[in-house]
C-alpha cells in the first residue's frame, strides 16, 4: 500500500506544487490554547481623571472597566489631551489598547502638580503599534478613553488625560512564538533550494485546502535523508518555521477532516469553547466551495448546544452546510454570508432556530475573556441575522 501524502507545498506566486509529503514536524506543537496573557501593572503619571476612571477612584463606580485606550497626539507640541482631527493616521499609530483593566491604587502625583498617579492592572492587546509596544511614542501626553459596546455599536467615553505612562512600553516575549524548524516527513524527492510557499492540507480524495498566511513556509532546504515512511521517500529538513504553529489538539481534528470531514452533526458539542473555536477554523479551511443553495431553502439550526459564542458558529455552519460546515466564525463573516451570499445559502433565506432558549440563557451581556471584548449576546445575533434579511423563526 502506498504511503498517503497528506500535505503539499504550493509556490506562493504560481500555485505550482513544490512538494507532497506525509507529515510535517513543527506545524503542531504542544501549547495551551488560547495563550494566557501576562497581566502587567501600569501607572498613569500626573493624571487628571474623568468619567469612569474618576468614578473608579472615588468609589462611585467599579474599579474594573474592561478595555482602556491611551491615545497620544502625534505632535509633541500639542497640549496634553488635545486631540487631532478624527481618523488621524499618526495618532492611530500612537494608540494602545489595554484589556481587562482595573484600578488598583492611586496617590498624589510625585511631581507636585496636584494631579494623581494612578495604578492599573491589565494586559496589552498584541499589535504592531509603537514597535509592538516596545518604544514610547514622541508625544507630550495621552488622552484616556474607555470603549464600550452599546446596541451593537462601539462608543468611546473620555476617562481624562495624563502626562506619561510607566510600565507600558518594554520588550515582551512573543505572544505566539514561531514553531521549531520544519521537517517534511515522507516527502517525494525533488525539493531543493529556497522557496516561498503556501501550505495545503490534502484530503484522501485529493482535494487540497490552502491554509492561512500564519502557516506559510518561507525558507530553504538544509538537508535530505531517506525516510522510514517509504523506500522512495525522503525526510527534508528546512530552515523555515511556521509563524503561528497550530495547537497539538488540532491534529486529531484535522485527521478527521482529511478522511472526509465529520459524518454526523454536533460532534463538536463535546468540546470546550477553545476547541470549538479550533473546530470553526478547521471548518473554514476545509470548506467545499459550491454555489449557494436555491432560494426558498429552509435551514434548521439545532440550538441544543449553543452555550457559547463559538458553539453558535459550529451550529449555524452545520445548519447551512451539513456536518462540519462553515457559515462564518465571527459577526463580520456572518454578515457577509447572510447578506451577500457565498456561504452556502442564497440571501433572504428562512432559518428555524430550534431550542433558541439555550442561547438566550447563555449568550448574555458581560465581558468575554476569549475575545477581550464585550460579549456578543443572543439578541446581537438575532439582530444581525434579521437585519441581513434572514427570515428567522425562534422556537
Give an overview in words.
There is one protein chain. By secondary structure, the protein is α+β, with helices and mostly antiparallel strands. The chain folds into three domains: 7-33 and 176-247, no CATH class; 40-166, no CATH class; 261-394, no CATH class. 20% of the residues lie in helices and 34% in strands. The chain has nine helices and 20 strands. The protein has a six-stranded antiparallel beta barrel. A hairpin with a 5-residue loop joins strand 1 (7-11) and strand 2. Helix 5 runs parallel beside helix 6 (309-321). The protein is globular and about 80 Å long.
In short:
The chain has 395 residues and is α+β, with helices and mostly antiparallel strands. The protein folds into 3 domains: 7-33 and 176-247, no CATH class; 40-166, no CATH class; 261-394, no CATH class.
Note the main attributes of this structure.
395 residues; six-stranded antiparallel beta barrel; 34% strand; 20% helix; alpha+beta; 20 strands; six-stranded antiparallel β-barrel
Amino acid at each position: 500500500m502506498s504511503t498517503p501524502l497528506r500535505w503539499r507545498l504550493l509556490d506562493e506566486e504560481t500555485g505550482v506544487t513544490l512538494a507532497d509529503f506525509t507529515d510535517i514536524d513543527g506545524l503542531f506543537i504542544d501549547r495551551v490554547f488560547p495563550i494566557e496573557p501576562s497581566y502587567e501593572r501600569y501607572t498613569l503619571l500626573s493624571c487628571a481623571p474623568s468619567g469612569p476612571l474618576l468614578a473608579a477612584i472615588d468609589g462611585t463606580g467599579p474599579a474594573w472597566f474592561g478595555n482602556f485606550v491611551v491615545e497620544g497626539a502625534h505632535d509633541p507640541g500639542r497640549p496634553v489631551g488635545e486631540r487631532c482631527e478624527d481618523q488621524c493616521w499618526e495618532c492611530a499609530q500612537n494608540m494602545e489598547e489595554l484589556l481587562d483593566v482595573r484600578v488598583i491604587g492611586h496617590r498624589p502625583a510625585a511631581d507636585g502638580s496636584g494631579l494623581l498617579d494612578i495604578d492599573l492592572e491589565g494586559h496589552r492587546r498584541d499589535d504592531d503599534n509603537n514597535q509592538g509596544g516596545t518604544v514610547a511614542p514622541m508625544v507630550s501626553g495621552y488622552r484616556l478613553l474607555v470603549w464600550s459596546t452599546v446596541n451593537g455599536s462601539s462608543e468611546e467615553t473620555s476617562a481624562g488625560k495624563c502626562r506619561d505612562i510607566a510600565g507600558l512600553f518594554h520588550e515582551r516575549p512573543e505572544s505566539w512564538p514561531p514553531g521549531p524548524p520544519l521537517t517534511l516527513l515522507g516527502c517525494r524527492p525533488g525539493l531543493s533550494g529556497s522557496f516561498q510557499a503556501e501550505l495545503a492540507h490534502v484530503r484522501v480524495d485529493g482535494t487540497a485546502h490552502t491554509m492561512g498566511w500564519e502557516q506559510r513556509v518561507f525558507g530553504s532546504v538544509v538537508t535530505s535523508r531517506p525516510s522510514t515512511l517509504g523506500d522512495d521517500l525522503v525526510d527534508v529538513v528546512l530552515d523555515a518555521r511556521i509563524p503561528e504553529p497550530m495547537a497539538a489538539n488540532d491534529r486529531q481534528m484535522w485527521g478527521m477532516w482529511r478522511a472526509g470531514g465529520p459524518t454526523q452533526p454536533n460532534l463538536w458539542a463535546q468540546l470546550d469553547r477553545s476547541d470549538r473555536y479550533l473546530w470553526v477554523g478547521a471548518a473554514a479551511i476545509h470548506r467545499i466551495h459550491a454555489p449557494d443553495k436555491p432560494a426558498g431553502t429552509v435551514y434548521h439550526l439545532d440550538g441544543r448546544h449553543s452555550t457559547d459564542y463559538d458553539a453558535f458558529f459550529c451550529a449555524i455552519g452545520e445548519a447551512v452546510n451539513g456536518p462540519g460546515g462553515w457559515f462564518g466564525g465571527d459577526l463580520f463573516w456572518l454578515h457577509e454570508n447572510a447578506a451577500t451570499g457565498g456561504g452556502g445559502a442564497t440571501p433572504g433565506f428562512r432559518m428555524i432556530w430550534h431550542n433558541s432558549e439555550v442561547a438566550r440563557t447563555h449568550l448574555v451581556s458581560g465581558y468575554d475573556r476569549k475575545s477581550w471584548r464585550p460579549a456578543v449576546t443572543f439578541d446581537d445575533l438575532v439582530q444581525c441575522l434579521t437585519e441581513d434579511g434572514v427570515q428567522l423563526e425562534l422556537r
